[in-house]
Amino acid sequence: MRTLTLTLVATVITATIGLGYIISWVYSEFYAKSEFSEEHKAYQNISQQLSTIVQYSEAPNAILEQWNMSGNIHAQLEDRDTLLLPQQLEENFKNGEVIALEFDDSVKFYSLINHSDEILTLTPPALIQESTPVENLAFTFIFYTGVIFAITLWLLPLFTRLRLLDNTAKNFGDGNLAARLPECKISYIKNIELAFNTMAERIQRLIEDNKMLSRAVSHDLKTPLARLRFGLETLQEEEREDKRKAYHARIHDDLDTMESLVHTLLDYAKLDDTHIALDKKPINLCDFITAEASQLNVVHSTAITITLAIAPAGIVMVCFDEHYLRMIFQNLVINAINHANNRVQLSVYEKSGYAYFAVEDDGSGVSLEDKARIFKPFERGEKPSTKLGGTKGHGMGLAICERVGQWFSAEILLDRSAELKGASFILKVPLLPSC
């Protein structure tokens, strides 16, 4: 709206001043000047003739007194030193040319009297060209027409973008969730267009996620529900106590699986809450990753070797919420451990204004087919593993990482590790400017 207001004010001011100047110039050049020029020449001739008479008269003051009494054109003699002229006008004046100078309330004509220290000054009535009512009306009409035309030109891009916004909104409302406003470098409502596209993107993502979650939940619940039904039926028929305990344990495992799925769904749904309070603060990524890696080795005992490659300076500052940074770390690292053969490497470095946290493994990597879908909810790789114990995941870890990263202008990049030949997941975060 600020751009809209500023451009409107600038257009009105420019049109008003510009048209006023143009109309004033046209009037002075083609209307007032023509008649003024004729009178100007007439007074120059009068001044030239009168100066000649005064030059050869023995009583010049008497002649001028009689002249002033007989008409309304005032004439008088002045000292030559009172008239200061630029060099070019001075040369013309010495050569006998009558000089006309315009003042606030009058125009004066100066002529040189030869062989004298005096000059003749002629002051006629004010040379004012009065415009006619028709001319006034014409110039007024031209002025307001010009202003309206300028404002109309300014409004055309606005009306075009508003009409496009209206059509896109109707198209989106009719079910075309991919409808977006095309970008335009010159737009008065760029912020509104950006807000609409962001809203449409968010709505489309939510609807697609809901469809995907519905399909995934129905699919992931079928297996534990079928096992529960089978287990309960078998439990009723089984009489041996040891077998009954085994079936009880399996039923509990299936319930744990279902409960884990519900918690995962709730955690993912919370990521769409726009009222989440983020505790952003400066974090040294080198110290954070080192501490989290040490804690991971203590909590989870695994045969996978975890190595660190920290930036030489030991300081890579980012602005992040520590809780959500830990969530990304755990998802990426545990995912790498589950797919690694022997080794996982964690790297922290900075480049071109960004901080990078890379998690590489020596597993089989990610296929081209998986790259297109692996960040979607409930999508798993080809070989889901459970090296850290517990049941296999629900395919939500990378989707959560990507969604959280968007809050902090961060990206999750996927590539093949040049050193370990497996997958390489990289968190790319802007270096700390301010929090």
Automatic annotation (TrEMBL):
Q: What is its main location?
A: membrane
According to its UniProt record, the EC number is 2.7.13.3
Q: Which regions span the lipid bilayer?
A: 137-156
Which UniProt keyword terms apply here?
ATP-binding, Cell membrane, Kinase, Membrane, Nucleotide-binding, Phosphoprotein, Transferase, Transmembrane, Transmembrane helix
Coiled coil feature spans: none
Task: Tell me yes or no: is Cell membrane among this UniProt entry's keywords.
Answer: yes
Q: Which reaction(s) are listed as its catalytic activity?
A: ATP + protein L-histidine = ADP + protein N-phospho-L-histidine
The Gene Ontology CC terms held by the record are: plasma membrane
- Location in or out of the cell: Cell membrane
Sequence ranges assigned to domain Histidine kinase in this UniProt record: 216-433
Q: Which domain of life is it from?
A: Bacteria
User: Has the keyword rRNA processing been applied to this entry?
Assistant: no
Protein known as: histidine kinase
